[in-house]
Amino acid sequence: MSEPEPQATPAPSAVRVSTLELFFDLVFVFTLTQLTKAFADRLDAVGAARVLLMLGVIWWMYGGYAWLTNAIAPSSTTRRTLLLTGMVGFFTMALAVPDAFGRSGWVFGTAYLVVNLVHTGLFLHAEGAQRAVRGLAPLNLTSAALVFAGGIATGPWRYGLWAAALVVQIVTPYLHSMAYAISPGHFVERHGLVVIVAIGESIVAIGLGFEGVPVDLGVVVVAVLGLSISYYLWWAYFAGDDEHAEHALSAITDPERRGRVALRGWAYAHFPMILGIVVLSAGVKKMVGHPFEPLDWAPASALAGGVALFLLGHAWFLRILGIPGVVHRVCAAVAVLLTIPLGALVAVAQLAAVPVIMATAMIIEDLPKVRRTGGTALHTFGR
After folding, report:
1. pTM of the predicted model, to two decimals?
2. Domains of the chain
3. pLDDT for 184-211, tens place per residue?
4. What DSSP letter does each residue of 36-47 carry, written as one string?
């Protein structure tokens, strides 16, 4: 006999992310590794369009599962099994990513439909969320059907149908209520964990680019500078602002408004951050083995553009929640984009300039904090 299905109740603020949810995030982030490889293999406008479409629909469903486990804890065998089924779907999508616009399109579309069906079925069991989800489910299923149809279609039809699915997903929240019971602590932690795992996965993706390359001074320089960029991405996101974000979300008492802020901050504003990590990783991979040579404009633009996307996305996020630091990130993003000609001269010059710019912006932002604490430390690892 299976375990009795526990009643779903809104999680209190003290509830934190379970290890099963972290396991789910690790599977999701594998899709980012695959997207990085796909973009690095085709670093042009067509490659960018493909990554944008695939990551767009995948990110929407990841967000759906983050909202799901915020409302329904994976606390029974049935729920854990269904969540595992969703993980299998994400893993299958990731495997299909490299050839999703070729022969593996039907695999990507079918796996996406399975992920969506599991999500809808689980959410319909969330106490207090049935009414909202009944309005959401038809729209989610419509977008999933478009992804499935696009996977079967060929040529321009695949691009068109997947673009239509992404449009449906973007407008869906404006067509029904967002008055969900949100646990701020769990919600903020869950998204923070996927960002840190994504940053870590970007390091792995870059490291895989060194396969077969002799370890020399150039390799060491690229590795150190690439790791430095990842560190400053971490600093920009986690230097206390995750705690401020939780407090800001907790301070919103109206369920509808809290849902809207959560949507804008953690769904829309986080998308360019995750996209930025993919684009940055692809750019760095292209300079592996050639750090002291000129870069083509495409990888130089990817390196700078990826960092700029992340910083601008985080600036948008801070603005939504009314947290200081927007100006520092926007200025840093603009300055980073100005390094693209450096890469066209010599790759390592751009790779060195980017972390210097990021460090400067973060240090300037931290100076008022240092003065308030007596100047004992410039940066206390984000806390």
Report:
1. 0.89
2. 15-177 (no CATH), 183-383 (1.20.1410)
3. 888 999 999 999 999 988 888 777 777 7
4. HHHHHHS-SHHH
